[in-house]
Amino acid sequence: MYVILAILVVIALYIVFIYNGLVRSRQMAEEAWSGIDVQLKRRADLIPNLIETVKGYAAHEKSTLEEVVSLRNKAQAVPSGDVAGRAQAEGLLGQALGRVIALAEAYPDLKANQNFAELQASLETMEGELQMARRYYNGAARDLNVKVESFPSNLVAGQFGFAKRDYFEITNEADRAVPSVKF
Questions:
Q1: Is residue 89 in a domain?
Q2: How many separate domains does the chain show?
Q3: Fewer Cβ atoms within 10 A, N terminus or C terminus of the chain?
Q4: Which candidate, 166, 162, 167, 156, places its Cα nearest to that of 27?
Q5: Is residue 27 part of a domain?
Q6: Domain range spanning residue 10?
Q7: Buried b / exposed e across 155-182, counting CB within 10 Å, b at 16+?
Q8: Are the CB atoms for 84 and 28 separated by under 8 Å?
Q9: SS3 for the chain, per residue?
Q10: Is there a contact between 53 and 92 (Cβ–Cβ < 8 Å)?
């Protein structure tokens, strides 16, 4: 009788241990997603300043600038929990921002403008921080996904509603291509 009771206690403690590990992993993934969300918000807040600076120099590039603003608004409209949708929207926004930065090559005065240079440097710094946040999130999502899928934690995960997380990844194959550099 004591042996059976001891076995039941050990099993209960093991289930609690697994459950707590799953909760910890879920919280890490949520915290990591929050980090991405913060960086994306910072980037979205920087975009209007960048656009206004470029507008003064590149008035006839209006369609490019309007596209960036439109994509920014679409990216912000994606629900926070929709990782795949947000990744796709942010990828399109990143491409459009790249075209705005490329405008500086066509406008030497814009390239020399201190405000534009500062905004561009801020954007580059932010993109680096966003890349780190994405890696952190994907690592946290991977850890949670491993626990949700591996035995015996998958038994506990299924009983308590733990689910896999989507990765924040590039969905556009053009973004994966190696850029060609010509001199």
A1: yes
A2: 1
A3: C
A4: 162
A5: yes
A6: 2-166
A7: ebbeeeebeebebbeeeeeeeeeeeeee
A8: no
A9: CHHHHHHHHHHHHHHHHHHHHHHHHHHHHHHHHHHHHHHHHHHHHHHHHHHHHHHCCCHHHHHHHHHHHHHHHHHHHCCCCCHHHHHHHHHHHHHHHHHHHHHHHHCHHHHHCHHHHHHHHHHHHHHHHHHHHHHHHHHHHHHHHHHHHCCCHHHHHHHHCCCCCCCCCCCCHHHHCCCCCCC
A10: no
Residue 17 within a domain: yes
Name the pTM for this structure.
0.70
pLDDT tens-digit readout, 110-169: 666 677 778 788 888 888 898 899 999 999 999 999 999 999 999 999 999 999 998 887
The answer as to whether 181 is a domain residue is: no
